[in-house]
Design a protein that fits this description.
Order of helices and strands: HHH
Strand content: under 5%
Number of strands: 0
Number of helices: 3
Oligomer: single chain
Largest sheet: none
Radius of gyration: 16 Å
Distance between the termini: 19 Å
Low-confidence stretches: none
Shape: elongated
Structural class: mainly alpha
Length: 71
């Protein structure tokens, strides 16, 4: 459990953690929707998505177990 991140668990159960499809930007910075070329909010969603993924990837199952045992 020390090596398992909450991000791994959530992705196994839920799939992608992106809040919206357009947050999945490709290398050429185009999103997945038809309005991608003129859309500026995709960059906001990308940053939100990156923050969510970073947070859950840095939170380990062992930390949650330990906190649960302390309460």
């Amino acid at each position: 459990t020390e090596e398992i991140s909450i991000g791994e668990i959530l992705r196994a159960l839920e799939g992608s953690l992106n809040p919206v499809d357009c947050s999945e930007l490709s290398k050429d910075k185009k999103g997945t929707c038809d309005s991608s070329k003129q859309c500026v909010t995709k960059h906001v969603w990308k940053r939100i998505s990156d923050s969510i993924n970073e947070s859950v990837d840095n939170l380990m199952l062992s930390e949650l177990i330990q906190k649960g045992m302390e309460e």
